[in-house]
Structures are given as C-alpha cells and as structure tokens.
Amino acid sequence: MANKDKSYNLSFEKVMNFRDMGGYETSDGRRVKKGIFYRSGDLSRMTDKDKALLESLGIRTIFDYRDDDEAIAKPDPTFKDVANIRIPAKRNDGIKMPSVTLKDIDNKKFLERINADIFTEMYSQLAFNNPSYQKLIEIIQEPDRLGILHHCAAGKDRTGVGGALILLALGVPRNLILADYLLTNDYMKPMRDAMIPILTKHLNETEMRRFGDIMSAKERYLEAVFQAIDQKYGDENRFFEEEYGLDFPKRQKLQHYYLE
After folding, report:
1. pLDDT (average), residues 78-102
2. CATH code of 209's domain
3. Cα–Cα 20 to 30 A to 60, which of 68, 106, 114, 210?
4. Does the pLDDT value for residue 97 go beyond 70?
5. Could you tell me the pLDDT band of residue 91, with boundaries at 50, 70 and 90?
6. How much is the pTM?
7. Dist. CA 206–CA 114, nearest whole Å
8. 3-state DSSP assignment of residue 40
9. HSE-up of 204 (CA within 13 Å, CB side)?
10. Is residue 119 assigned to a domain?
C-alpha cells in the first residue's frame, strides 16, 4: 500500500480482519507508530494460539463497539492486566448489525430493510454526539492505557469509523484513511466467497446485492463521514474540538506521542 511499508495484518486463526494500524504517513511526513493501535472483528472464537499472540502485542485496552445482544451472544475473552470496555457505537436507528454468520445474513426480513443508502446514512451520523467514540478519543489521550484493540463484529463499519477518527486525529490524509478502510474487503474476501454459493440457493438477485452492501467496505460509506464533518464543522480542527474536546494543542500532544 502506498505510504505503508508492509502489510500489518496479523495471522490469527479465528479472528477476522485483525491488523496493526501503524505505518501510515501523515501530512507532515511522520508515520504512525506500530504496536499501539489495532483493529479487528469479533474475538469470541479465539484459539489458545490467538490468545497467546494477542498477549504478546502489549495491548492494555480492548474496546468493543458492539450492542448488548451481540456481546452477550459472543462475549470478548478477558486477559490479565487488559481492560475490557464496551460502549455501543451504533445509534438507535433500528438497524440490527449482522453478526457475520449465515444465520443472520440469510434472513430475508433483515435484507428487506438494509441497502447501501441506509448504510451510508448510518455512517454519516456515527461520528457525532456518540459516547462510544468520545470514550475512544479520551482513551487514546492516555498513553498508559495503550496499546488498544478496538473492534466490532466484522471490524468493518463501527471499527472503520473509529479507525478513521484515530488516523484523522493523528494527521493521516483522508485518502490513506480510506485505503486502510477498504483493506477490509481483502481480509473478508475468503469468508464472503465461502458464503456466496450457499446464499445463492436461498436469496434472489436483489437480496444478494444487499448482502454485498452489508459485507463490503464501500468508499461511499466512509466518504459520508468526511462529508458530514465538512458540512457541519467546515474543518477537522473544529470537529475534534467541539465533538471530542480535542483542541489543537491536544492533537499536537497526541501526535507527539504516537508519530515518529
């Protein structure tokens, strides 16, 4: 990837889309440090090997964006000296996030209510007045609580917005933030490819297209976040200061900690 010197995907056996967010170049030529910010999908199926790998990464905080029912069905593992924090990121919009299983995806009632336009609208609202991301930005200002792993079910939507906010605060250009977001399509491809032959037996063409909307990271989704920031605040400095109390001196301090 441009401006990132190697792949930062980590080889977990039963954790999807796990990767180090370090290595991206900022607008002033510095780079995000490795080994501090991680993102992933669901952690509930971790093997012993997976757990040992996670313990080797120096993670001190696991931040979960999922709703109550998701976390109850698939609870996060706990680790010694690692804080587990969960604050649902999804707004009260009536959209139940799929848990990335055939049971949830192969659900005609759910697929009748979801499409790319609905996802785009959901993204456009996530970054504002959201206690989940407010807590995330609070945590990343405290170096002794990092490294941090933030995740949702697939590590795509809610984690995608959280990852975008972290990188944006650190001064990574939007085109690179978008490229990081779209990497999810590569990491989720094996799972999507395995699901498609099964789902095509039950779903029609429209439903399969909506399956694609759910299971893909689309440029328009994350662009909706950036457009909403610009429309509401005009620039990123005002956005971070008014939404997150992260004024310019605090952003500079954040960048001093986590850039090299």
Report:
1. 77
2. 3.90.190.10
3. 68
4. no
5. confident
6. 0.90
7. 11
8. strand
9. 4
10. yes
Query: What amino acid occupies position 111?
Result: L
Element (H, E) at 174: helix 174-199
- pLDDT tens across 157-174, in order? 999 999 999 999 999 999
Range of the domain at 225: 19-258
Tokens matching residue 216: 């893909």
Angle between helix axes 116-126 and 205-215 (nearest 10 degrees) is 20
What per-residue confidence (pLDDT) applies to 103? 54
- Do residues 149 and 59 lie in contact, with contact meaning Cβ atoms separated by under 8 Å? yes
Does residue 13 lie in a domain region? no
Q: Which residues pair with 177 in a beta bridge?
A: none
CA 203 – CA 82 distance, rounded (Å): 42
DSSP element (H, E) containing 146: none
Please check whether residue 38 is in contact with residue 50, taking contact to mean a CB–CB distance below 8 angstroms.
no
Q: Strands, DSSP E only, in 4-98?
A: 19-20, 37-40, 61-64, 83-86
Strand order in the sheet with 37-40: 19-20, 37-40, 148-151, 61-64, 83-86
Q: Average pLDDT, stretch 205-213? A: 78
Maximum alpha-carbon separation in the chain? 56
Asked whether residue 7 is domain-assigned, the answer is no
Q: Has residue 14 been placed in a domain? A: no
Domain count across the chain = 1
SS3 214: helix
